Each structure stands twice: as structure tokens, then as C-alpha cells.
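User: I'm preparing a small set of examples for a lab meeting where we compare how different chains pack in three dimensions. I only have the primary sequence for this one, and I'd like the structure in C-alpha cell form so I can line it up with the others. Please keep the answer compact; I'll paste it straight into my notes.
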Amino acid sequence: MTTEQQAEAPVEALRIVLVDDHAIVRHGLRSILERESDLEVVGEASTAAEAAAVVERTRPAIVLLDLKLSTAADTEGLDLCARLTQRHPDLAVLVLTTFLDDALVVQAIHHGARGYVVKDVDTTELLRSIRAVARNESAFDSHAAAAMVRSMRVPAERPRFTERELKVLQLLAHGLSNREIGAELYISETTVKFHVRNIMRKTDAGSRAEVVYEATKLGVI
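Assistant: Understood. Below is the C-alpha cell output for the 221-residue chain.
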């Protein structure tokens, strides 16, 4: 294949499943997302059982998940998030909900979500969040980020971070990718990955979202 042919090769779209108990919300999201050439809605679900089946069948890269999927429970989506991410470790779950409770933001992260945005988020921010979690980055809108900060307590003891690690942490909290962090700090992407791994080890975090959570809890950002 020539260089010109490679340049013309289409980029594979991110496969997305919408999980929300309101059909009108799912239809609205679909109409927004399908305007984007790099996004493709491959399934919808209104219940936890439907969601598990649709994800199993379509194998999406991303699930947009509401926390409330029935009148019986306000946070049924949390359990679903945990089940989906345990069964599909590479799946990126982005919580998209009307609930803005400080504890829920933290619980969503611990249940495997890579991001948390509320439904009044503007389209640009939603699209940015979707693409961020697809890159295994964290994604929080301003409301969710503030809620997460409020929920933290600063412990008496905390791990020690180097000056460079602290700078990387601050940029992680702003949602920058490894490449963007490298450009900002004038270091290679490989060096950024090294620092991120060290930070994850020191914070005992399993994802970038948890890194931000734990660092905020420790009071270092």
C-alpha cells in the first residue's frame, strides 16, 4: 500500500452502546453522535439485562451509561458498570446521568467507570469526554470534578511525589493525554508513561481516573 493510499484509509469508528431507560434520550444521543465520522452507535439498551446482552453481542469500545435504569433503584447503573468492566476489561464506561452526588462520582470510579458527566453537558464537552475515555484517559465535566474534590479528605500521611510527577499529576487532572503532557513538559511520551506508571503505583490506582481521584484525596492536586 502506498503512502497516499494509507493516508486515504478510513479511520475505524469508535463503537458505542447507549444505556438509558428513556428512549427519547437514546434517540437524541444517537442523532448527536452519528454526525461524527469517528463515532458509531452499534446498540441501545434500557435495562441492565438488555445492556449486558447488547454489549456481549456488539463488543463496543464505549458504553454511555445512565445510573438510573428503573424506578426501583436510583443507582442500578453502578452494579451494571462493575459487571461490564469486569467481564470486558477493555471496555470504557462513561457515566452520563442527571445525578450529581459527590459520593456517586467516587463510587462510579470504583465500579470501573473512566468518566462521569451530567446530562446538561454541552455537545462539545460530551464528545471530548467520549474520545478521552476511548484513549484510556479520565473524563469529568466541571460539575463532576468539583463533586469529586468535595468528597475527598486529606490523610495524615501521603506518598512522596517528585516535582516532575506532581506536574504530570496536575496535567492528568486536566484530562491531557500522554502526548499532550509530553509536549507541555518538553519530555517524550515514553517518559510520560514512565511517570504515570510510577504515580499509579504510588497511589495504588488501576486507571487514570483513579489516579486523579487518589491524588485529589491526598491533597496533592
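A couple of notes for your slides: Strands lie at 14-19, 39-45, 62-65, 92-97, 115-118, 139-140. The two ends are 47 Å apart (CA to CA).

User: Perfect, thanks.
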